């Protein structure tokens, strides 16, 4: 009588590992895609992004995400996310949008970043940057916020530094 239970238990152990790489594979499905392609070809991403930005008053280009960086996998406090960013077709020196997507939860959060003008150290534009879709969990929101702000500031510095020949 114990054999059916043992068989079921062994079968369960064999099935669980088959599901384990599903999350990693789902991240890989997004990595390397341009932001515009993610909106067009990944309905889960598009739904999460549109829900996160909701009724925010953002520039028109944020609806298309036409110019940006390919999506990459990032880990924040042990959780894997897909990070992509976009900017106006005029360039990324004025406005930059960061989108952090968690395929496991189907949620997106991010930062609409206004970098300070590189020629004006007193520029306060950054104060008008906006967060969106941040998780309710304060520790997670803090970790995501710190990561995105560090990335945004680093990107702004890189873009503001003239290329050396």
TrEMBL record:
Kindly state which keywords UniProt assigns to this record, in alphabetical order. Signal
Q: Which Pfam families match?
A: Ivy
Record SUPFAM superfamilies: Inhibitor of vertebrate lysozyme, Ivy (SSF89872)
Please give the start and end residues of each transmembrane region.
none
Write down the superkingdom of origin: Bacteria
Secretion signal, residue range per the UniProt entry: 1-24
Query: What InterPro entries does the database record attribute to this sequence?
Result: Inhibitor_vert_lysozyme_sf (IPR036501)
Q: What is this protein called?
A: C-lysozyme inhibitor
Q: Which organism is it from?
A: Accumulibacter regalis
């Amino acid at each position: 009588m114990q054999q059916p239970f043992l068989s079921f238990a062994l079968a369960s152990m064999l099935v669980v590992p088959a599901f384990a790489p599903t999350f990693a594979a789902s991240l890989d499905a997004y990595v390397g895609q341009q932001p515009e392609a993610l909106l067009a070809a990944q309905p889960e991403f598009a739904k999460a992004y549109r829900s996160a930005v909701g009724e925010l008053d953002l520039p028109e280009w944020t609806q298309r995400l036409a110019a940006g960086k390919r999506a990459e996998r990032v880990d924040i406090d042990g959780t894997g996310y897909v990070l992509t960013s976009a900017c106006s077709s005029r360039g990324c020196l004025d406005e930059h949008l960061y989108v952090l997507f968690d395929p496991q939860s189907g949620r997106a959060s991010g930062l609409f970043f206004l970098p300070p003008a590189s020629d004006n150290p007193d520029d306060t534009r950054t104060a008008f940057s906006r967060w969106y879709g941040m998780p309710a969990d304060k520790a997670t929101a803090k970790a995501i916020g710190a990561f995105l702000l560090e990335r945004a500031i680093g990107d702004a510095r890189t873009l503001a530094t003239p290329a050396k020949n």
